[in-house]
Amino acid sequence: MILYTMMPQELIFPYDADAFKNQQTVSYQGIPLLVEQTDQQNYQVIRVLSSDPQHFLNDQICPGAKISF
Length: 69
Fold this sequence. Notes:
about 35% strand, YlzJ, YlzJ-like family protein
């Protein structure tokens, strides 16, 4: 079976559900992101889900960056 998708294999076929329970998709300043909750209000960016190339150049939302809501 061939699966054509832009999503990574880990999101389609997760290995352990507990490892992904803190991850969620959010819209931060209009940019879709995959984030992981680190504490009450802080999140760490895992992946930028936008198709706009300018969003990948934004240092505030690069993977590994900490954001808060």
